[in-house]
């Protein structure tokens, strides 16, 4: 039947950005019970690819409503419209979000961007990083890994493009599909459903509107109105971490200090990240630790002092140009379920984590690809509605078994160890050292997956 089934694993492979797909997809298909479709075939656990009689009798989905025109909502809409499913994308604001936010797309995300037909444009506007390291405050390297152990044209090599630029690119692609409609200034205020359809009550500039579809997908971010309507205003279970960070986008040439594409500085107080996010223009993301509890204006006033404290070169404000500064709290939270009837959640509407390692972004895009496969299976009559329960079950399990623990460990690694001893005591750094002499392992690290091993991967 299906010749090339792909699935995300349940095992945590790496503590960095990874939810890479395991090589034994047949075993995963059996264990997980949810599989990627190849061509016109899909398998679900314990069921043949043929749909139930009721599903087979259907002529396909009439329309899917996606709420939220962020990258996850745009990407899902492209995948649906590209594959013959009518989609209506509703956005509460009147424009795309211009906040740069995350930028690194690991191999599972690259796979989904390729399926959507956008990866070539992403690569053209972004770049493929080559190097990654952890450093002490004096700049000396503790551990390192390389992405250029993979060929430049490797189909799943990491790509970097700030999220605001990706949003514009995705919107441009979405406009090419006649089955897709985007409605700006459509703010969801209430929801409803019955056995045959779901609907949203929307407030617009011209008054209230009711919009119906077969399914409604909440892709409306961490403050998701869909999630709140489904489970209540205080249902985003988890915690706010007792730490504050400030993310800045800055033009400055860090290569003159010997810095690599991505640099994590390990320090009990001044932990931070310096990562190149611009293709040719020395645009970097500098994200650094701060004192919790201050106002946004107070954080902005402290920025020059913090740069001078943590960055090389004893920098003065005239030495760099900041284009964006965003203080924020870090949260680890997950919705009670990713499905309730004909309503589904993806990406930040379903789960959030701290930004270190890119697990929130990669995990959110993986949600999108998994949900798309399920909806397409239903649309083609190859799976019944119960496959959406598997989507909700498996993706939520992946949050608790991979995204949440790994992202916490990524964060802890920056501040909760002695930088002078970390190279010898940190299990993951030991894996990096081994990879320097093991080309096969180095390639596994560059793709963000490896066979399950010791607890070093947690």
UniProtKB/TrEMBL annotation:
<dbReference type="Pfam" id="PF01494">
    <property type="entry name" value="FAD_binding_3"/>
</dbReference>
<dbReference type="InterPro" id="IPR002938">
    <property type="entry name" value="FAD-bd"/>
</dbReference>
<feature type="domain" description="FAD-binding">
    <location>
        <begin position="63"/>
        <end position="398"/>
    </location>
</feature>
<dbReference type="InterPro" id="IPR050631">
    <property type="entry name" value="PheA/TfdB_FAD_monoxygenase"/>
</dbReference>
<keyword id="KW-0503">Monooxygenase</keyword>
<protein>
    <submittedName>
        <fullName>Monooxygenase</fullName>
    </submittedName>
</protein>
<dbReference type="GO" id="GO:0008688">
    <property type="term" value="F:3-(3-hydroxyphenyl)propionate hydroxylase activity"/>
</dbReference>
<keyword id="KW-0560">Oxidoreductase</keyword>
<dbReference type="GO" id="GO:0071949">
    <property type="term" value="F:FAD binding"/>
</dbReference>
<dbReference type="InterPro" id="IPR036188">
    <property type="entry name" value="FAD/NAD-bd_sf"/>
</dbReference>
<keyword id="KW-0285">Flavoprotein</keyword>
<dbReference type="GO" id="GO:0019622">
    <property type="term" value="P:3-(3-hydroxy)phenylpropionate catabolic process"/>
</dbReference>
<keyword id="KW-0274">FAD</keyword>
């Amino acid at each position: 039947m299906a010749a090339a089934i792909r699935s995300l694993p349940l095992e945590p492979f790496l503590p960095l950005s990874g939810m890479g797909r395991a090589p034994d997809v047949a075993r995963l298909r059996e264990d997980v019970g949810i599989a990627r479709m190849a061509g016109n075939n899909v398998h679900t656990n314990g069921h043949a690819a043929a749909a139930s009689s009721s599903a087979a009798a259907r002529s396909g989905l009439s329309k899917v409503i996606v709420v939220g025109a962020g990258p996850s909502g745009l990407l899902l809409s492209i995948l649906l419209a590209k594959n013959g499913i009518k989609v209506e994308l509703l956005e509460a604001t009147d424009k795309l979000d211009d906040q740069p936010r995350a930028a690194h797309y690991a191999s599972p995300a690259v796979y989904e961007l390729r399926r959507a037909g956008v990866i070539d444009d992403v690569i053209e506007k972004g770049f493929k990083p080559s190097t990654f390291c952890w450093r002490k405050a004096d700049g000396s390297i503790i551990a390192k890994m390389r992405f250029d152990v993979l060929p430049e044209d490797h189909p799943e090599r990491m790509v970097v493009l700030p999220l605001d630029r990706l949003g514009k690119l995705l919107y441009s692609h979405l406009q090419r599909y006649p089955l897709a409609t985007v409605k700006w200034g459509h703010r969801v205020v209430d929801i409803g459903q019955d056995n045959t359809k779901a609907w949203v009550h929307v407030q617009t500039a011209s008054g209230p509107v009711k919009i119906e579809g077969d399914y409604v997908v909440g892709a409306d971010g961490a403050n998701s109105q869909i999630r709140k309507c489904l489970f209540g205003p205080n249902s985003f279970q988890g915690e706010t971490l007792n730490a504050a960070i400030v993310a800045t986008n800055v033009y400055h040439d860090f290569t003159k200090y010997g810095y690599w594409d991505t640099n994590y500085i390990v320090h009990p107080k001044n932990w931070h990240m310096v990562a190149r996010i611009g293709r040719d223009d020395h645009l970097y993301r500098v994200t650094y630790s701060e004192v919790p509890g201050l106002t946004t204006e107070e954080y902005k006033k402290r920025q020059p002092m913090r740069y001078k404290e943590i960055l090389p070169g004893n920098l003065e404000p005239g030495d760099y140009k900041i284009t964006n500064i965003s203080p924020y709290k870090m949260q680890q939270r997950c919705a009670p379920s990713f499905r309730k009837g004909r309503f589904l959640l993806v990406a930040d509407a379903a789960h959030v984590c701290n930004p270190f390692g890119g697990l929130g972004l990669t995990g959110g895009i993986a949600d999108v690809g998994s949900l798309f496969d399920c909806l397409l299976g239903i649309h083609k009559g190859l799976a019944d509605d119960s496959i959406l329960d598997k989507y909700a079950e498996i993706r939520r399990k992946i949050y608790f078994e991979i995204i949440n623990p790994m992202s916490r460990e990524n964060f802890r690694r920056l501040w909760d160890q002695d930088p002078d001893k970390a190279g010898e005591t940190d299990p993951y750094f030991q894996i990096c050292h081994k990879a320097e002499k093991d080309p096969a392992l180095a390639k596994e690290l560059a793709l963000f997956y490896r066979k399950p091993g010791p607890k070093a991967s947690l």
